[in-house]
Amino acid sequence: MELLANLALGFETAVSPMNLLYCLTGALIGTLIGVLPGIGPVQTIAILLPTTFALPPVSALIMLAGIYYGAQYGGSTTSILVNVPGEASSVVTCLDGHQMARQGRGGTALTIAALGSFVAGCFATVVLALLAVPLAELAFRFGPAEYVSLMLFGLVGSVVLASGSLIKAVGMIVLGLLLGMIGTDVTSGAHRFTFGIPELADGLGFVSLAMGLFGICDIISSLETREARDILKARISGFWLSRKEIRDSAPAVLRGTLVGSLLGILPGGGAILSSFTAYMVEKKCSREPETFGKGNIRGVAGPESANNAAAQTSFVPLLTLGIPPNVVLAMMAGAMMIHGIQPGPRVITSNPSLFWGVIASMWVGNLMLVLLNLPLIGVWVRLLSIPYRLLYPAILVFCCIGLYSVNNNTFDIALTAFCGLFGYVLHKLDCEPAPLILGFVLGPMMEENLRRGMLLSRGDPAIFFTRPLSLLFLALTAGLLIAMALPGIRKRRSRAFEQ
Amino acid sequence: MRITRPKDLLTGALFVAFGLGAMALSLGVHLGTAARMGPGYFPFALGSLLSLLGGVLVVRGLRPAPARGGWPAVNAKPLLIVLSSVLLFSQLLIPLGLLLSTALLVVVSSLASQEFRWRETLINAAALVAVVVAVFVYCLEFPIPLGPSFRLLSP
Hints:
The structure holds two protein chains of two kinds. Chain A is an all-alpha fold. Chain A has one domain. Chain A contains 22 helices and two strands. Chain A has a two-stranded antiparallel sheet with strand order 1-2. The radius of gyration of chain A is 22 Å and the shape is globular. Chain B is mainly alpha-helical. Chain B folds into two domains: 57 residues; 64 residues, no CATH class. The interface between A and B is large, with 63 and 72 residues.
């Protein structure tokens, strides 16, 4: 019953008129930006992060969460209508969703994506609420050794998803950890890697780094390649599902929800892995697997439910252990820290209305998306027809002014340009920036815990191997690394990315 | 010695450069011991790991295995124009104010597109300036100077 009381507290916070408004605004502008082809949740959050800074923390987080689902929802709209996935997790939706749209069933595909996401969202909210308290209590028993091993596990887990070379991905993590060291060392007060630049004494700005690597860099690389966009001109109608379609897709939604909820919690999991897995599950379960890729409604229902469920349950490790399991949540972690909230087990006890409010607002946000987006679909379609040459200057303008507002200084804007250049170099070398952001967010925390652990053990690294939980995490990490280096799995991994 | 995988080689070189740089800079601050780590200890360790990984990549880029992937192709025009439009904005925002620098940002960055047209760009700039004023100045009330500040004129 404590759960009900907690959720009640959450809903009380979430449905206050102000927060409802921010939730709505977040969901709307999240969809607005997320609908643009090639822009996924990470880019959307990076671009819109500064707009939340003027708000109190609870409202800001609620708005950010709204932006997150909105972006995800917008991404699937683009996948279905334009066949350009906004991000990796919507790639799967393209396969069957776009085919459905070509067959004149675009409205149905959008509806099932929305309803599936809503069902998944409801379920995942409950999972999050149920798991949060026991996990946070477990986390209180963690010493520095456990934290270091857990973070290592989380970082290596994130690499499972980076396509391409394993060494490059590990290198990106290390590079991210190093970038996280820039600034004043908390323990000694010494300046590290600041090159005498006073603005760097507080560390490299998270917003600058994220916006440079994702926002600016993406604009440059999409300007290089002029892609022919294949927008569906046909009118989209027929949002209602037939009884047969409901019967067909309901089990897929349920399976997707379960897959997503489970995989979202794991490090490196999240929306991408779960939508791929859900698609494969649907194909395996189906009696007619050959219809997949040709407009099978289950191929939309399963993955769309899964990625939404995962999007929500991936908040579990962040809010209870303080470990972001993937890059989108790393953005959320960065945003929380900017608002002065250290993500971790203490959030629940020290700030219960914030914690439960954010959870409840996820549910409210999902409901809003269903109610708002289907009627607004015409607006999103019109937005898709705006040429890119007019859109990207607008994105740049919002990025730049947003950056200025972070600290009211122009240094951050210039820094972002450099981060954009850096991101461009990485992009050209096929290095994924996602592990770097994770390393950057976790770097300072990892160093602090490592120092504390080694201080406790008087310099003996055995502390990481003798404590059972810490040993477990290390063993899992080693297992992951070995598994990824094995040739058989390596092949399967690259095949999974090609699909 | 033939370069078989240019991207691996370049990434390796980048990692080695960053790694060695981090190690050198970490030596400048107190390293400490394993039990009492100074501010340089962890970065130094990370730097050595990064240079090691970079070294492996360099070797892989040179090994006689079948060549894979070419040199990265760089299209300098959008890169330079977009980056300089952002840098320009960062330098001009305070002296020129929000209105002028936003318009400049839109016009300069639009030059990067292959389908650039003057009329369209100017209309876009005017529209965006209006949106920016409405959103950031009136709704969010950001403290940003609107017009040119006259500090430029008086010493």
